[in-house]
Amino acid sequence: MKNLLAGVVFALLWASASVATKFGILSAHPLLLSNVRFFSAGLLLLGLAYTTGHRQWPAKNEWRQLAVYGLLNVTIYLGCFSWAMRYNSAGIGSLSTATNPLIISVLSAVWLRRTVRWQEAAGLLLGIGGVTCAVYPLLLDSYATGAGMAILAVSMLSYSVGTIYFSSRQWTLPLLVINGWQVLLGGLWLLPFTLAATDWPTQHYDGRFFGAVLWLAVVVSIGAVQLWLYLLRLDPVRASLWLFLCPIFGFIYAAWLMDEPVTGFTYAGTLLVVFGLWLAKKSR
Asked: How far is 219 from 213, CA to CA, in rounded Å?
């Protein structure tokens, strides 16, 4: 029961990131929202790590690895994701996130120079088809744009490459320290773009902005990630099954909180993505 509760809470929290981002960018530029989130989460994580007994600092080669991982996993992935939410619905953001395991599965096969299993390839095609199906009516009703979907695709690809990069490196640091430094370094990489892109007089530092930052930094970046690591330690295969719930919860949040439309295309696209996930996981 404890593990079941942890899995459901993880899916509930992880799926909320798209809606929280949509609320935040109503008050401020997406990159500004991202930068404040990254610095807040990074400092909180490192403060927690270094005040609870972790005294280990990154070695010389680990600084380089953290810089690369932060660039891929934070700057490009989450920076582009926030930017894409300006042009896409929150539901599509949640659904596209669910395709990450499919992309990782195929890219890791190429990285390891092994043959891509037909289930992995079929799962990825189903995932792409599902997102296309769900986004079709949203493009017609201006809830999504072609440019927004292209930025979202770059975001998903960067996350997948970052995951494979992380898995291929040797790490001696505790996970809490790794997470803290990669988020903080990712924020530093993003800062020049934020400074250049933000129209400062038009930003609104109101309750909605700080509420979104607090939710994304503490609840998602720390709470959801720590639950995910807990589930991974118990059973990586079972942990991945909780990703199936994320797009479902994401569309529920989008319809409830953002009044976004849910159509037959939404249901069909979500089912295709979930079936693609199941097929790819079944091959492992």
From this structure: 10
| Residue-wise pLDDT tens digits, 131-158 | 888 888 877 776 788 899 999 999 999 9
Alpha-helical (H) ranges within 146-263 are 146-168, 175-197, 207-214, 225-234, 236-241, 245-257
How many C-beta atoms surround the C-beta of residue 125 within 10 A? 15
Contact 163, 73 (CB under 8 A): yes
Mean pLDDT (the chain) is 87
The per-residue pLDDT for 236 is: 59
pLDDT above 60 for 32 = yes
Q: Where are the domains of the chain?
A: 2-282
Angle, helices 17-24/90-97, rounded to nearest 10 degrees: 140
CA separation for the pair 216, 209 (Å, rounded): 11
What is the C-alpha separation between 141 and 215, in angstroms, rounded?
29
Q: Look up the pTM and report it.
A: 0.86
Q: Tally Cβ neighbours within 10 Å of residue 249.
A: 18
